[in-house]
Amino acid sequence: xxxxxxxxxxxxxxxxxxxxxxxxxxxxxxxxxxxxxxxxxxxxxxxxxxxxxxxxxxxxxxxxxxxxxxxxxxxxxxxxxxxxxxxxxxxxxxxxxxxxxxxxxxxxxxxxxxxxxxxxxxxxxxxxxxxxxxxxxxxxxxxxxxxxxxxxxxxxxxxxxxxxxxxxxxxxxxxxxxxxxxxxxxxxxxxxxxxxxxxxxxxxxxxxxxxxxxxxxxxxxxxxxxxxxxxxxxxxxxxxxxxxxxxxxxxxxxxxxxxxxxxxxxxxxxxxxxxxxxxxxxxxxxxxxxxxxxxxxx
Length: 298
Description:
The protein is an alpha/beta fold. The protein has a single domain (2-165, 223-277), classed as TIM Barrel (Alpha-Beta Barrel). 31% of the residues lie in helices and 21% in strands. The protein has ten helices and eleven strands. Strands 1-2-3-4-5-6-7-11 form an eight-stranded parallel barrel, surrounded by four helices. Strand 9 and strand 10 (216-224) form a beta hairpin. The protein is globular. The two termini are 25 Å apart.
């Protein structure tokens, strides 16, 4: 089982992104996903910048995958998508069917991201014929659903599961972060930069509920499946994804790496990781319960 680092979901500055990936080159990560998946207005890095980072990480021994937008709304975004799909060097994570169409038409292999709704083995079969190399389990599916999928998984298709990080729940044409600042989407003033970990939305009784991240809505609590490591191995999951956060991503990666190497106890380390999630963690969806439920160590 390998560790992967998902794309950065938040809007970080150019300096923060460059510094982050310079560190990633030395982490015990097998695969790194690069690129903007949320909003095309986030232009801290150009495509050429992303490609330079990809080259650096590749030289450091990492598999690099270029991720695409989950929601396309403009011709300019389609042009960028085509350029990513036609990069001729790195595998692409398709986060919508438009990307799959472009890649499959050219006979190129691809990863189906968590926003591609793969809910049954038949879908895997269809996508396998169109070049699917790896799929990422939709975050709302349970281990029971995954078990069923794995029993009928097409030969040669890898399975990846988000093991730590906030859950991407929904996308919209509206920008919720701009709306929360009483700004129109077209004149958002790039206010997402002020929230490098998203903007927490609370219920009326002040309970953290969701996180606003531009047009994306995330869970307030990150999922933490480290305690489920043996189950994930038994289900023959190939890769575990860790979603980047502004701080402590290195420590989270190391905790998973230590457990995979047999140097630490997953149950104990799972508890330790809660210190890196100040709002708490969750794993409800994994157990077939409401997503924000915490059932870890029960």
